[in-house]
Structure formats: C-alpha cells, structure tokens
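2024-03-11 09:14:02 INFO receiving multi-entity request
2024-03-11 09:14:02 INFO entity count = two
2024-03-11 09:14:03 INFO echoing inputs for audit
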Amino acid sequence: MLSAGSLARTFEDHIAPAFEADTGIELYGEYYGTNAVMRLVTERTKHPDMIVSADATLLRDRLFPAVADWDIEFATNSLGIAAAPDTAFGRRLGGDEPWYDLARSTEDGALAISDPELDPLGYRAMQAFELAEAEHDLDGFREAMADRVYEEPEEPQLLAGVETGSRVGAVVYRNMAVDRDLPFFEFPAAYNFADPDRAATYAEATYTFEDGETIEGRPIRYNLTVPGNADNREAGHRLVEYILANPSLLDEAGLTVGEPFPRLTGSVPEAIEL
Amino acid sequence: MSRTRSGWLGRPTGRSGLLVPVLLGGVLLAYFALPFVTFLARVGSTPIIEGLATPDAGQAIRHSLVTAPVSTAIATGFGVPLAYVLARRSFPGKRLVEAVVVLPMVVPPLVGGAMILTAVGRFTPVGAAAANLGIPLTGSLIGVVLAQTFVAAPFVIITARAGFGAIDERLEQASRSLGYGPLATFWNVSLPLARGTIAAGVVLTFARAMGEFGATMMVAYNPRTIPTQIWVDFIGGGIDAILPLALALVGLTLLVVAAIQRVGRLPTVGDR
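2024-03-11 09:21:47 INFO inference complete, emitting structure
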C-alpha cells in the first residue's frame, strides 16, 4: 500500500495489526507526501495494491482513468492547534480567551505551521487564518499570523518542536495530535476543513504559491482506490472492505468518520462488498 | 620516537606537546558528544525495551542484521581487488574509473536509489526479467542489499586502495623474484600487509550499510530495515518514537565494529 504520510500512524498502529490478525494478509505500507504517492504510481516506479490519498481531488486528477476509475472517500480530519501543555499558551488555549487572541500574542516563531509552499497542511493553516479573520471580524489577522508563525519545511518535525519545547504549538490535523498524545484545540467547523458540506465556504479562502498559482480551500477528504492492474487486487479489495467495515479503528486514530462517509465515485468493483 | 624532538609550534615536547591538537580535537569531540547526550537524555521518559519488543522492530533488526553483512561481504569481495588494481596499475581511463568509484558518495543516497530504480526497477527489462524468475530486485531483501552495496562499497574500496598504496612495492617485487605469481603475491604479501587498513574499510562500509536509508527507501521500502522503520516511526511519532530503534542501531553497529576490529587485529588509532 502507498499512503499519504499523515496516515502512517493510522495504518501502522491501528489498521495493519487488526487487518493482519483478522485476515492473515500482511500489510506493507509505504508513506510519502500525497503528490509523491501519485507520481510514484503514474511513473510506474511503485506498483501498490492499494493507494490512499490525503487529497481526494488529486487522486482523481492524477490516476483517473489510466490507473483506476473509482475511489471511495472514507474519512476526514480536522484542523486545529496542538499545544505544548507546559506553556502559558497551552494552559490558556481552550479556556475563556479566544484562540485567535492567544495566537496573535505569541512571540515570533513560537507557533509553527507546515510550509505552505510544500504541504497542504501548511496552506490550509493560512487559509484557516483567512477564514477566521472573516468569521470573527479580525482585521489583518491573516497577515499578522503570516508574519508571526514559523514555517516548518519537514512535516514530521512540526510536532517535534512542540514536544521538545521549542514551540508553544503547531497548526496540525487532529490525528497528528492524537498520535502524539498532545492536547488538541479543534477549530470551529467554519474553518477546520472537516465538513464536506461547507466546501463553498472553505473555497472563499485562497493561497497563492510563489510561482503565482492560486489554490482554493477544500475540505479534507481521504480517499482510496485499488489500481486495475495491481499484482494482488484481491488483497487490495479485502483491505478496502476492512477499512470501511471498521470505522472505529479510524476514529481511535483521530480521524473523523460517519456521515457523509463513505462516499463512492465511479464504478466500485463488485468484488468489494460494501 | 625521540623525546627531544621539538613539539607543536616549536615548543619542547612532553605531555604538553599535544595540548593544541587535544584542544582542537576536543572541540569537535564535544560537538559530536553533545547531541548524543541530549538525545540519550530522553531515554528516561521512553520505554526502550517495550519499543524494541514490537514485531515491527524485531523484523527490522533481523532484516538489517541479514542485509548489512551481505552487502559488506559483496563490497569487500569485489572492492578489495578493484582497490588493488587502482593502487598498482596505471591504465587509460583510470581517472574515469576513480570517478565512478566515488560517484555513489557524491550523489545523495536518495538520488542513488532513484538511479538504481531506473536500472533495475520492476518495469525495466532487467527488473522485469528478474521478477519473472522469482527474484524481485525491488521491495525485497535483495533490493535492500543492492541499495546498501551501492552506497557503502566506496568506503572499503577507497580505504583499501590507500592501504595497498602504502605498502613498499619492493616487498611485492621480492615475492615475484622468488618465483611467486601475481595472485600468490597478492594473497601472501599485499593482503596481509594491508590487512589493518582493509579491516578499517570493512568497518566503515558495514557501518554505512547499517545506517543506509535514502537509497534503501527508494529501492525497498519494505521489507524494512532499522533505518526505514525509524523513518516510519518518526513520521507518525516524532523523536521519542525513534529512540528504541536508534539505540539498537548504534548498539548493534558498535558491537559488530568491535568484533571486526578484534578479528582484523586492527591497531587502535595511533599505535602503528
């Protein structure tokens, strides 16, 4: 299986052990950024039996129709702040003061986001700041935060900074905070990117890359597919069934399941029992 | 060594003669040691044994202990003869050969891995033929060995070459003039004389193979070696999650290095 790196812990600690115990099929996961996952498949460098993307649209754009012609959205995730519990910021977050006032008064570089140029998690943080500015009438909030935050180029390092005490917090997905046992302050649905029905609202926030390309905010949707020419399609299908039949495993891992998931696109093979 | 020889910067020798090199070396040593100490200081808060008892960790350790020695053996078996040729012969294109030998050290391991994939990847003629024969060159222990050998072999070649180069050629000529052939001379004269240096090269190659990650991840992410498993643990769990396997890697490598040094009767640094 090739999967987005943000789901490494979900598969390694939750799904793989249960799947192997229940089916006797061994699951070998490889984790990269979602962009790299798609490229490795389309360039025929890797030939997985299942592909998992952190960006449902990207999977369809890249893999349809050559690699696969169907996918299933199976979970979402929500954006918020994982805080270092032993800092003043961490203690006050989630109390009476609004998070944006606390965030605005952090020192330069104390709050981290992923690099928006490299990682959807990074530009989603910037878009969340923009949506929060509109939602709470915070004049200049996005700009103020853009100046203030530290942009971490390596996503795995993002929470290492919080754990080691060099940052007071980081804007991350909920499952990342759950993975590390860090307190998580979830943004409201208006800008946590977890609600597929708010796609139009999320799209009001944009991020413009250094090369001039602009990207609109989109809900977080994890989807998966099995390539039509996979070596072991049968095992891929069993894994898809297993994931859909055991949403509690995803929930434990910090993902958000339940309505409106799973959502099917294209003609899902009949071999997969839903 | 004469006691009256003048020391560093012209001052008389004695213990104080090493003051400057000790100070300079100490600065670097402290820089090496500090991250180790601060990293190890986190051990207290992390259950090491528990971390190593997981099936994933156990498998990774087994895979590393199988692949790194094989890679080292291949690198030594083919690399030491190459080193001897490079030390003893001049031939057209020698510079090119030397460049090829250092190439794997110049390119980042990730690029090395990408290069291997373009050569023996699953959909290349070589990779497809091997896979049809039931010998997958990627995503297999063979793939791990291919990656480790590519990245780690230059260390033993370059070190052994320096060792052969330091042998007085007249000793080899004496052997030849006594009627021994080139192979017998290599085996009975050159190899024993360069033994210490070759062992040092073997140590470097083994250590590099144990720690190899970039090329290995490209060629064979699975089955996982210790460094690949460390990466997967890090993606999901951060620094504390990698402590157990990182300690195991350092411990196992030091153990094997000590064993090689004992077998190779490698002089410790300085006593020559």
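2024-03-11 09:21:48 INFO post-check: Residues 68 and 227 of chain A are 5 Å apart (CA to CA).
2024-03-11 09:21:48 INFO post-check: Chain A has two domains: 2-76+221-266, 79-215.
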